Every structure is written in C-alpha cells, then in structure tokens.
Amino acid sequence: MPAAGRSELAIEASDLVKTYPGDVRALAGVSFTVPSGTVFGLLGPNGAGKSTTVKILTTLTRADSGAATVAGIDVGKQPNRVRRAIGCVFQKAAVDLEATGRENLALQGQLYGMRGGDLRARVDELLGRFGLAEAADRVTRTYSGGMQRKLDVAMGLVHRPRVLFLDEPTTGLDPEARAEMWAEIGRLSAQEGLTVLLTTHYLDEADRLADRLAIVDRGGIVAEGTPEELKRELRGDAIVVELAGATPDGEVRGTLARLNGTLRELTLDGRTLRARVDSGASAVPAVLAALDAGGIPVASATVGRPSLDDVYLRYAGRAFSAANTEEAR
Amino acid sequence: MTALVADGTYFTGRQVRALLRQPYFLVITLFQPIIWLLLFGQLFKRVADIPGFATASYIAFLTPGIVVMTALFASGWAGMGFIIDMERGVLNRFLATPAPRGALIAGNLGYQGVTTIVQSAIILGLGLAAGARFPGGPGPVLAMVVCAMLLAAAFASFSNALALLLRNQESVIAVAQLLVLPLTFLSSTLMPADLLPAWMRDVARLNPVNWAVTAGRESLHADVDWGLVLSHAGGLLLLALACGWLSTRAFRAYQRSV
C-alpha cells in the first residue's frame, strides 16, 4: 500500500502563510506534522498565529500559500471532505444559548447527516459522559462556563471525528473545571485513538496533555519537541545580574570562565548579564564573588524559576535575534 | 440540494424553538402593528369619508397595509441573528460543518417566512374582528400573505447582508429603522395612492412596500385584478432574488475576514 506511510500522519502542514487585510501577517511559514492517534500542542502567546493555523486546518479560512492535509485530505482542494473528518472546538464556547444542551448536540449531529436512533443514542451517550445528563433539557444560558465548555467539546465529538481541534479549551475556566477538561481530553486520545490538535497559552496544559508540542511566536514555529525535551533545556533557574557600569563582553566572560561548568547560555546585553543555572541559590554567591574578584562592580542580582515567559524569551528571543542579524546583512 | 433543504429546515427549526421560548418577543413585535391597526385605524376613521376614498371602512383599507408593514418591521431585524451567532462563535462552528453555506441563509429566510405567516394570520384575524371584510375570497388574501413574505425575504436578505458586512448590532438596527418608516409613508399603506401628493405617488410606484400593499389590497375587491397582483408579486420575487444574491456575496466577504 503506497498510501500507508501518508495515512499515518493525521495532520501535515507545510509552509502555511496567511496575511489578513491591512498587511497583518498572521502566519509566516508554519510547518509541522502530527502522527495519527497523538496529541499535538501548539503553545504560544495571544496573537502568535495558533488560531489562524487552526482556522486554516479546519477550512474556516484559506492559506495564502503553503499546503495542508488533514486525515490525508487536502484542506484547500476538498474542504467539505475535511469537514466530515474533523471535530472543532473553537476558542469561545460556541453553544447556542437559547437552545438546550440536547438540542445543541442534536443540531450538530444533524448537520453531519446523523438521524433518528443513532443520533439520539449518541447524544445521550455524550451527555452522560460529560456529566450533562441532568442539565440536558435546560437552556444552555443557565449553564456555568465549565458546563458550556464541556457541551462545546461534546458537540465537536458528536459525529465521531478522526481528528479533533481544540483551540484553547480551558481559557477562562476555573481550576476545577480545567482539571475535569484535562481528564476528559486525556481520555479522548488514550481510549478512542483520536488525533488531537490542541492550542494553549498555558505551559502546564501543554505539558500535561501533549505528546509533542510546537512553540509558536509571531507567525512561526520557534521550537518543537516533546514536553520533556523542551523542559530539559529549560531546567534550572535563570539568574540576572545588573552590572554597575558598562564592561567589555570579553572581560566579563574571562572573569566568569572558571564557572563555565555552572553557567549555561551566558549572555551580556548592555549591562544585563543573563545565565541559566541548576540552582540559583548556590550560583549567585559564586557569580558575585567571581565578579568582585575580577573588579567588576554589580548593581543587583535576581534569581527566577523558569516561567512561561522564559520559554518565549528563550525560544522566541533567539529566533528574533537570528532573524534580525539576517535582515541586517 | 437535499442537504440545502434539510439543513435549512434544521436552522429554521432552531430559530423557531428559540422564539417559542420567548413568546414575549412575538408579542412585542405584534404590539406595534396592533396599535397601528386599532388605534391609528380609529383615529383616522373619518379618512374613509374623503371623496375619492374607494373603500368604505378605513380599518378594512388599513389591514393589508399593516400585514405588509409588520412583515417589513420584523424582517429588518433578521441580521441580528447572524450578529449574535458571530459574536458567540456559533457561526464559525456551523461553517466548520459540512452544512452548505446557503442553508444558513435559507434557514434564516424560512424563519422569516414562518413568522410572517403567523403575524399575518393574527392581524387578519384582528382586522376581521374590527369589521374588515375580504370579498375577493381566500385566493387574494393568500396572495397578500405571499407578497408580504416575499417583501420580508427581500428585506431580511438585505438585513443579513448588512450584518455580514458591518458585523455590528447598532449599524444593522440603525439602517433597518431608518428605512422602515420612509418606505411605509412613501406608499399607499396608510392613504390611497389617488390621495397622495403627485411626487409621493411617483416615488411609491418604485417602492416595493407599495407593490406588496397594492397587491394585497386587491383582496378587498370582489373582482380581483390578478394581472396586477401577479405583476407586483413578480417584482417582489425578483427583488427577493436580487437581495438573496447580495446576501450570499456578503457571506463570502465575511468568510474571507475570518
């Protein structure tokens, strides 16, 4: 079977570019692949291009250039076949507030051609599974945000899609509802073999749910790997030392040379010295002592646990400086 | 084609269910025409005594006009449904399903059709109770309702197109409210065409609201001028098709902006 190799990829995006009117470049060449049956996370801040990527893959909008297949079907050429194969849960809980939970689910199924007993059974099954059976015949205006979001996900599943898109599924949910949603998403991929593409701006969410993830920033992918791989590179603390006066880069590096085993990713930007260390508490006194011994006066020193900001600073920051250097040439 | 009809019906059903949950909305939209029919009808009762006024009862004269006017008022709100669905993200959810895009528009127009029938029936009932008679029989009364539905389809499509292009509740309401009263006054809705000032009569000839009212008013005559009814209905049908086409173009513009 020559097609077998391709069909193992549930999503294949290559070099997607999208510019919105007013020269707003949302995507500047995004490529990634998602193997069938896995959860892939797109992690990035608001406006990074996550939602635009999802909109292209779910046929809501077209890429200016580049190509993508979902479930082996070309998104640009056969959007209607793609629509039948995918389930979509967009950023906002898109439930009809004037209809009951059951009516929302039934209409969604009908639009995929489901009818009669099959549809009724599926609706009941999903209502039960998402803990909405009791509220099924209430208008969704009376639902809590967490219940609306659960119904929203249930609606994305009603026609038994092969690939599920979840665009920021837990944004705006309280911690309890968030934990429940995580558990449910975990079940989906583990028990049903569903391929899930998840976007999020929460590091812990991507960590918990995604088999692989890509960090998206300003319309491009800046890092990709398993959460373990990405975290390993971020392990430890970040230390920031403000020097009292401008000091040549070579002099600072020379002074700190004997700490080479401790300090990673040392950068000097003006008077700001940044480095990554295993333990900030023991590294800072050593750094301060070394600088003092070298006669380099220090204004302040701070230690930070790696946060989401560090992830972006690290991956996006590096990518930008590289891009800027290229442009300058 | 089957998907268009089936999904269109589901979308109509969705809006009808929402309406049935808020019957006060239906009551409010009927309140205005009832005021026009009963209070305005009473206030200007003596208008029927003016020489040149062909109908003996002003209420009878007014009833077809109010049927048309109510359809016009209600359909001006049609685009609001799209705006609410856009804001909620419901529209994007529908667009990601295999449902044909046309079914969304057809479903909305189907709903306008259903509400126009219900409202027309209530107004005709009130008119009958207030003394209006339709010697032309059920045929021209049915034609009146069909014309009201065609006008509603045209105006609703226009409202939908505005909603999809402007994507803002206030603009859609403002444009609809701005158009409704002039369109009503520049027609024979409240006064026979013969008694209108000459310039108004000329403008009214081009006014689709006037086409619907004139066609509907044939139901008040024993000898119905079917040629006139059908030509006006034909004009309304063409207008509805043109506005429908405009709304599908607006839909494409919306999709490009997603």
At a glance:
Chain A has 329 residues and is of the alpha/beta class. In chain A, 40% of the residues lie in helices and 27% in strands.
Blueprint (SSEs and pairs):
The complex is a heterodimer of chains A (329) and B (258).
Chain A: H1 4-7, E1 9-20, E2 24-35, E3 39-43, H2 50-57, E4 65-70, E5 73-74, H3 79-85, E6 86-89, H4 101-111, H5 116-129, H6 145-157, E7 163-167, H7 175-192, E8 195-200, H8 203-209, E9 212-217, E10 220-225, H9 227-234, E11 237-243, H10 249-255, E12 264-269, E13 272-277, H11 280-293, E14 298-304, H12 308-328
Parallel strand pairs in A: 3-8, 3-9, 6-7, 7-8
Antiparallel strand pairs in A: 1-2, 1-4, 4-5, 9-10, 11-13, 11-14, 12-13
Chain B: H1 2-21, H2 23-43, H3 58-75, H4 78-88, H5 90-95, H6 101-129, H7 138-166, H8 169-185, H9 198-205, H10 208-217, H11 226-257
Helix pairs in contact in B: 1-6, 2-3, 2-6, 3-6, 3-7, 3-10, 4-7, 6-7, 7-8, 7-10, 7-11, 10-11
Architecture overview:
The complex is a heterodimer of chains A (329) and B (258). With 329 residues, chain A is of the alpha/beta class. Chain A is 40% helix and 27% strand. In chain A, the strands form three sheets. In chain A, strands 6-7-8-3-9-10 form a six-stranded mixed sheet, with helices on both faces. In chain A, strands 2-1-4-5 form a four-stranded antiparallel sheet. In chain A, helix 4 crosses helix 5. Chain A is elongated, with a radius of gyration of 24 Å. The two termini of chain A are 48 Å apart. Chain B is an all-alpha fold and 258 residues long. In chain B, helix 1 crosses helix 6 (101-129). Chain B starts with a helix and ends with a helix. At the A-B interface, helix 3 and helix 4 of A face helix 1, helix 5 and helix 11 of B.
Structural class of chain A: alpha/beta
**Beta fraction of the residues of chain A?**
25-35%
Poorly predicted parts of chain A: 1-7, 318-329
Which term fits the overall shape of chain B? elongated
Rg on CA atoms of chain B, Å = 19 Å
Instruction: State the total count of DSSP E strands of chain B.
Output: 0
Assembly of the depicted chains: heterodimer
How many β strands of chain A by DSSP? 14
Q: Which band does the percent of strand residues of chain B land in?
A: under 5%
Protein chains sharing the most extensive interface: A-B, 31 and 24 residues
Tell me the overall shape of chain A: elongated
Helical residues, percent of chain B: over 70%
Mean pLDDT reading of chain A: 86
Instruction: Characterize the main sheet of chain A.
Output: 6 strands, mixed
What number is the mean pLDDT of chain B?
91
Radius of gyration of chain A, taken over Cα atoms and rounded to an integer in Å: 24 Å
Structural class of chain B: mainly alpha
